[in-house]
Design goal:
Blueprint lengths: L2 H18 L1 H6 L4 H4 L9 H11 L4 E8 L2 E8 L9 E10 L4 E2 L7 E2 L1 E8 L3 E2 L4 E12 L8 E2 L3 E4 L2 E4 L3 E2 L26 H35 L3 H14 L8 H20 L8 H9 L6 H18 L7 H26 L1
Antiparallel strand pairs: 1-2, 2-3, 3-8, 4-10, 5-9, 6-8, 7-8, 9-12, 10-11
């Protein structure tokens, strides 16, 4: 280790002792070998790093005052006094070699600080034959000083000549806005998007609601149709059912079995409503036997019904082939029977 490194280590330890324990520092002023003698726990790497960090922080030069080749310069860190943190003021005295400078105790000259502590570094000689001496002041600002932060003028002696310095005013951070106690709020709404599960939940609710509305609309439509058909005569209701069957397009799709099942049911329901015979729940033979004893079903009408129902049974149960012309012929036969029977009923009732 070179001489300069050893000197820097001694200076750092010497400065740190004066900050932490001024009383112990005064006891160790002499002799020199005791002042720089190592003590247990005082020269730890952590303390040296903390002090080195403080001493290497960037500073802000306030001003320089000169008296007969003697200059006083002030530097402040941080550059602006902040009541929330301590400040470090470095006073540098530069004099020609051999010139003696006496400084007063400046602790009473600071204004706006609740605590003032200092330590001095060993003087150093520059290559241009000047002596530099640094005094570090640790300042704790008051929260709200009455007259700001400053160092009032003081008197220095240079070779038995006295000089008065100018006051040094330290810049202070701006005070926060005055709080009146009233509610100060800027109510600007901020749109927060809903989470994904909430979005999907509302989409599901919307789809379910739409399906329920569609089901309700269909049920109301069907109910109106049922009410309207119940108010019709048996013949009008049979015509409506026949038209609805033709609109389903069974014949165009080749669904002849389904077509004949519905067609015979239209005729059977008409007979039940018009003549009171339970044709929809009887087989063809059972229905024909029941209809044979009814006065409205004479031989010619009963024969046409037999031919119509038996031809439909061949398609429904025997798998007989059907054609669009055969389906049209069966539809015409059903329409003629309903029309003729309904007209006879109107004549008898009229």
């Amino acid at each position: 280790m070179n001489v300069k490194a050893m000197w820097d280590r001694r200076v750092l330890r010497h400065s740190w002792r004066k900050i932490v324990c001024p009383a112990a520092y005064e006891k160790l002023q002499t002799p020199l070998d005791r002042r720089f003698s190592p003590r247990r726990g005082e020269n730890t790497p952590i303390l040296r790093c903390c002090l080195l960090f403080i001493l290497t922080l960037p500073t802000f030069a306030l001003e320089t005052q000169t008296f007969n080749n003697t200059s006083l310069s002030f530097s402040l860190d941080p550059p602006v006094i902040d009541p929330a943190r301590d400040a470090l003021l470095v006073l540098t005295v530069t004099t020609p070699v051999g010139v003696e400078v006496l400084l007063p105790d400046l602790r009473e000259r600071f204004r706006g600080f609740s605590r003032v502590e200092y330590f001095s570094k060993e003087p150093a000689t520059t290559p241009d034959h000047f002596t530099r001496r640094e005094i570090h002041w640790l300042l704790t600002p008051e929260p709200v000083p009455e007259n700001g932060y400053s160092l009032r003028p003081f008197v220095i002696e240079v070779d038995q000549n006295s000089f008065a310095t100018r006051p040094v005013v330290f810049p202070a951070a701006p005070l926060p806005e005055f709080v009146t106690g009233e509610i100060q709020a800027d109510l600007n709404p901020i749109r927060i998007p809903p989470p994904a599960h909430i979005v999907f939940m509302w989409i599901g609710i919307g789809l379910i609601s739409l399906a329920l509305l569609m089901c309700l609309a269909y049920a109301l439509k069907h109910l109106r149709r049922v009410v309207r058909e119940r108010r019709m005569s048996p013949g009008e209701r049979a015509y409506a059912e026949l038209e609805r069957l033709l609109q389903r397009g069974y014949v165009a799709r080749g669904l002849y079995k389904e077509f004949y099942i519905e067609l015979t049911h239209v005729v059977r329901r008409y007979i039940q409503r018009a003549h009171g015979i339970a044709a929809p729940v009887k087989t063809t033979e059972e229905f024909l036997r029941a209809a044979a004893g009814h006065p409205r079903f004479h031989g010619e009408v009963l024969q046409r019904l037999r031919e119509f129902l038996e031809s439909a049974d061949l398609v429904k149960f025997a798998g007989a082939a059907a054609t669009p012309s055969l389906a049209e012929s069966s539809t015409s036969a059903a329409r003629r029977y309903i029309e003729s029977d309904a007209s006879k009923g109107m004549v008898e009732n009229g």
